[in-house]
Each structure stands twice: as structure tokens, then as C-alpha cells.
Design a protein that fits this description.
Helix content is about 55%, strand content about 0%. The chain is built from 10 helices and no strands. Helix 4 runs parallel beside helix 8. The radius of gyration is 19 Å and the shape is elongated.
């Protein structure tokens, strides 16, 4: 069952789909979520706290999708192709994921700055969100770390550094497809190219992911989760 925080984040993201962030009102978000405005303030502390939580939730959702893609695939090539396909889908369906991975923030989106030093929020659940959103390079690095962790120890042995480079190539290819779609416009066009590139890249040896069969993360309406 979704928590009040999850429902509030869904409501805020739904509002963001039709309104610029400056026009999204806290009272309307609370009403759409079916909770009191006080509950909203208790969870996030204010609109800027809600903005930071939205951005971090988008980043977490993208990374959860990376892990799901790795767990649903077999060898290295299939795993990286699945991660690339998920990246294309996430960028196209969630404006916050797109901003996080490209660094292109429009005026319609929340782009909260971290709070001033020494102003840690009293609610522990808000402290991580208040650190500020990850940069595109940092988010790609986190995705790459998940790829290396998923295949580390597989047979045959992977070179972690080479695999990380291969993963970055695959992710940057995916971003190019997300921003400039193939002539057919189909997300599926990404996977064959990634497989072709990965097959000839250093460190991209065949292997089985120890996470095969992993469960898909929780899905929420309007938020970036694997289909």
C-alpha cells in the first residue's frame, strides 16, 4: 500500500505535468493526494523540500529501473542493452529524469538548491533529499556502479574498470537515442546498437547476472518505473 509520502509525490508530479512548478500549490497537491496540508508539510517541510524530494525520487526511480533491467536480463550484452532501453524510456516519460541525466532544466521544473550549511531538517527522512540532486555525471556513475556490481563475480570474470567504461558507452548511446530518436521513433532501436557496440568493447565478455529474476521495483502512476 502506498505511503502518504508516495501519494503526495505522485500528486505533485501529476500537477507538474500540466503546470510550471511556480504554479503548483501545496494545498492543491495535498487535496489531490487526499491528505491534509499539515501532513504535506510534516513530510517535506515546505515547497522547496517537496521539490527536492521529487527530484531525488526521480533519480531513485531511474536507478531502481537500472537494477530491474539488469535482473531481468542474462549476459552482459543483454543486460547493458536492457539498461539502455530503460534509460531511453525513462528519459522520454519523466521530465525530471531527463533533466537529471542531461542537465537541461527548463523554467517549468523544480531545481532546488541544497539548504544553507548548519540548517539540517529536524525530520531524518528529509535529510538525504536536502543534500541536493545528483549531477548527470554522478547519476551515470551510480548506474555504472550497479552494472559492475551485478556482473562482478560472474563467469568468466569481468574487468570492473573495462566494464564500467563499456557501461558508460552504452548509457551515452542511450541518451543520444532518447534526445534524438531513431527514424522509426521506437525505443527498441536502442538495444540492437548497444549489443553491437558492447560486443566489440573491452570488458564486455559474456556472463550471467547473479541478479537474474529480480523483482521489479514498486510502480507508481506518473512516476518513472520500469514497464
Amino acid at each position: 500500500m502506498p505511503t502518504a509520502r508516495d501519494v503526495l509525490l505522485d500528486a505533485a508530479l501529476s500537477a507538474l505535468a500540466t503546470l510550471p512548478w511556480t504554479s503548483v500549490r501545496m494545498v492543491d497537491v495535498a487535496c489531490a493526494a487526499g491528505v491534509s496540508r499539515q501532513t504535506l508539510y510534516n513530510e517535506f517541510g515546505g515547497k522547496d523540500g517537496l521539490a527536492r524530494a521529487l527530484v531525488h525520487d526521480a533519480a531513485d526511480g531511474y536507478l531502481a529501473g537500472v537494477e530491474w533491467a539488469l535482473g531481468s536480463a542474462g549476459g552482459t550484452e543483454d543486460g547493458l542493452a536492457a539498461v539502455a532501453a530503460w534509460t531511453v524510456r525513462a528519459v522520454r516519460t519523466n521530465v525530471l529524469v531527463k533533466a537529471l541525466l542531461t542537465g537541461c532544466w527548463s523554467e517549468r521544473l523544480p531545481r532546488p538548491a541544497p539548504p544553507a550549511a548548519g540548517c539540517a531538517p529536524p525530520v531524518p527522512g528529509r535529510r538525504r533529499a536536502d543534500q541536493g540532486p545528483p549531477t548527470p555525471a554522478e547519476l551515470l556513475r551510480r548506474a555504472g556502479e550497479r552494472v559492475v556490481a551485478a556482473f562482478d563475480g560472474g563467469q568468466p570474470t569481468h574487468d570492473p574498470e573495462a566494464l564500467a567504461v563499456t557501461c558508460e558507452i552504452a548509457l551515452r548511446l542511450a541518451l543520444s537515442y532518447a534526445l534524438v530518436p531513431a527514424p522509426s521513433g521506437a525505443d527498441g532501436e536502442t538495444a540492437p546498437l548497444v549489443r553491437h557496440v558492447v560486443a566489440g568493447a573491452p570488458g564486455a565478455v559474456s556472463g550471467t547476472s547473479p541478479r537474474a529474476g529480480a523483482r521489479s521495483p514498486r510502480e507508481s502512476p506518473g512516476r518513472s518505473r520500469p514497464a
